[in-house]
Specification:
single chain; binds zinc ion; 5-stranded antiparallel beta sheet; 163 residues; alpha+beta; disordered N terminus
């Protein structure tokens, strides 16, 4: 098996950790920059005007967290591919740049979303965006945030025991 060959020189403990890592689930945050204002068709939610600036998208995967994040990165880079989630149409927009993806293996999607929602400097551009399956009452799982909020994100996560 190719994976065996690839890991041949690694200690068994690392092999195991690598496999566990690829299978693991958890939450993630996409840090996005919209370089100019756009009109976005957000699935059945409708057509929305999105202002230039920084956006945070919070998602989760039950399994295969790294693979999910890679899928988002690919879509943002190639600007083509199937549209399955609301975020896909945003990622495919030519004016959207995926600056960074953070994986939070020990955090919950809605717990993370609420921390961002409740803090000054965030707003909800499209009510319900990315939150079709949300049972926790999040206003959305996409937020527009100020440049300072984006810069302080790691501290905000750490202070809320999410990072
Ligand atoms: Zn939620």
């Amino acid at each position: 098996m190719p994976s065996r060959i690839y890991h041949y020189h690694m200690k068994p403990s690392i092999m195991q950790d690598g496999a566990l890592y690829r299978k693991a689930g958890g939450a993630y945050i996409l840090i996005l920059e919209l370089q100019r204002s756009i009109e976005l068709q957000a699935g059945s939610l409708g057509l929305f005007h999105l202002k230039k600036g920084y956006y945070l998208y919070i998602g989760s995967a039950k399994r295969g967290l790294p693979g999910r994040v890679e899928r988002h990165k690919r879509l943002a880079r190639l600007k083509r591919g199937p549209t399955r989630w609301h975020i896909d149409s945003f990622l495919k927009n030519p004016h959207v740049v995926l600056k960074k993806a953070l994986t939070l293996p020990n955090a919950s999607e809605c717990g993370t979303s609420k921390v961002i929602a409740q803090r000054a400097g965030s707003e909800v551009p499209v009510p319900g965006f990315g939150a079709s399956d949300c049972r926790s009452g999040c206003p959305a799982h996409l937020y527009r945030v100020t440049a300072d909020f984006q810069k302080n994100l790691l501290n905000i996560l750490k202070n809320n025991n999410l990072g």
